[in-house]
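Q: I'm writing a short methods note and want an example of a predicted protein-small molecule complex. Could you take the sequence and the SMILES for zinc ion and return the bound structure as tokens? Please keep the output block clean; save any remarks for afterwards.
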Amino acid sequence: MGGITIEDVAAAGAFLEGHFQLSSGLHSPRYLQCALYLAEPARAEAAGRQLAARLKACAAKLVVAPALGGVVIGHEVARALDVPFFFTERAEGVMTLRRGFTIEPGARVLVVEDVVTTGKSTREVIEVVRERGGVVVGVGAIVNRSGEDNPFAPLPFTTLLTVSIPTYQPAECPLCKQGVPVVKPGSRPQPSS
Ligand SMILES: [Zn+2]
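A: Understood, no commentary inside the block.
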């Protein structure tokens, strides 16, 4: 089964070049704005089906993803697996499960993300699921830009696209040294017309 190619992502206008501050705090000259790729429901559905097919062997009974980035793809993976979907969110910086979402003890849970860079938020979701008594049986993401094959080993980890994009600590960032203004892509305002 074919995955997404970087050409697909670029054609959707979701592969951005510039000087970006990632949610991890690292800087990067390129950014994958998955929200733009997933803006077309048919693309989101197809990506969810592909990830679900690769993760079917995990036999998950629930999908959990972090808001906001993981919500669309998490929902589509859950739809393809025909299981419920919950999302975690940050409350005062701490990843939590709210809104009445309840994990049954021993429930087999798949954790889904849009982009894995450092894997920090994914790990936080894994911890939340485990604290609530769930059993994490796998991790899926649209894009792996972590530079590692599986940052969550020994859990199975599947992605549709692996990309190698440099990241820098701000103090070592060549774009900062050139004085290029840095933007946070998640909160980047639309250019006014
Ligand atoms: Zn920089």
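A: Remarks, as requested: The longest strand covers residues 135-144. The pocket of zinc ion is lined by residues 19, 27, 170, 173, 175-176, 182 (CB under 6 Å).
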